[in-house]
Amino acid sequence: MAWSQVYSVVDVVSTSLSVPIAIAGFWIAISQIRKTRAAAEAARDTGATARADARRAAVLVLIPQLQRIDEQIEAAIEAHSPDLLTAWANTWRWQASQLNQYLQTEPLPSAVDLPQQLQASVLAAANVKQGLKNATAWTRTTKRLSETVTAVTNNLGALAVQYAELPDRSAS
Amino acid sequence: MNSPEVNDRLLRLLYLLMRRTERGTLTWLKGANERYETSADTTSYAVATHDGDGQPPFTLAGYNSRGEEVLFVKTDDVNVDSSTEERIANLFRFVRDRVDNKDLLAFLDQALDDVDDEKPPF
Q: N or C: which end of chain B has fewer CB within 10 A?
């Protein structure tokens, strides 16, 4: 057999095989991409569920904390202690702000007024330090803080129930 | 304001604050020295008179979700243009009227409804 015939046979074989090989390669690549995408979506869903669960757990921890801070604020007002009141107002400010951020991420239809009430209480708490610099402003400053904080805590019980009753996404 | 981008947003904010106040979806509370405060979902605002006398210059302050002041505009600041100055003044006067006359306005609304003999039956 002449070398030219060998080359010719090899050429025919390689030409006829290239198309199925290319198709097979293409199919393998597509199936790998599909598997990768499915894995990425599953990881994303798992991450989203984990974040939502962590958020819900944080809210359920924040609610009793805010109720306790409310009690401490009332006690500080009762004791007429500017230092205690300033400290607890600051604590309220950070915790209420955090709860509001969680509510922005997962709003509940029945808690529609709560973000506005939380924000008003945060502003009232932020104003405490400035307000108490003026000796005559005690009543006005504490009244505003007490009213806005009470407006929030009045709704926290219902919020806790709603959060506790949200469907358990980790089980799905 | 020097920046056109800031100024545009500020004018829009003032327009929206006025609109929501007119619609009654923002609750303004009166503080000391002619200061009125309100809160949206994650931000708060205060309009006031700088000298606490009900007269210009007026101020607008904005607070973030942690209660920190991040916006402060005083109407006689050289950087504040006339449109912004006018809107802050209008907002202050409107809010003051609404808050200070809240009970009277509620009574007058009820009275107008009560006395009107030409109102539709339903």
A: C
